[in-house]
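Q: Could you fold this chain for me?
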Amino acid sequence: MLSFEEKLKIIESFPKLERKNVSLKRVNFHYVESGSDKKNVVYHLHPNGNGFVYADKLNEYDTDDKGMVNIRDFSEEELREIIEKSIQSLEPSTLEGETIEEESMEEEKWVDSENNTLLLLQEEGFWNIYAGVNLENSFSSYMEACEYLKEEDFNKSHI
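A: Sure. Below is the predicted structure, expressed as C-alpha cells.
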C-alpha cells in the first residue's frame, strides 16, 4: 500500500487538479475546469492512506452510491490510471468549439454489447428514452436517465 505522502506526490503531479485541505487532516483535489457540477476527483485522502476517487462515469470500477472508488490499496499505476480516467470523464464536451453542458444536450445515442440502440432525448423538461419510435422510459433528470441506461448495460455512443 502506498503511503499518504506517496499518494499526495502522485496526485499533485496532475496539473489540472487543485488541492483543498479539509477537516481531520484530509485532502480533496478538485478539477476546477470540470464540464459538470462534479468537481471532486480525489475525496478525503487521509493520512492513514484511505481515500476515494470519483469514477461514476467509468464502467470498469465498482463505485459506492456517490460514484466513488476506495483507493486505499491501489498501486501507483492503478492510482494514476483511475485519476486520469476520472479527469477525462469530467472534461467539458465540445462541439464546434463550444462547451455543451449535460442539461442542454438534446439527444444521445446509447448502445449495448449486442448493438441494440436506445435514444435519450430531452423533451419538455423530461429525459425520455426511446427504442425506435417507442417510449421506453422517462426521467426528470439527465443523471437518472443515465443511471438507468448503465444499469441496463448501455453505454453512451461516441459516434
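A (continued): Confidence is low (pLDDT under 50) at residues 94-104.
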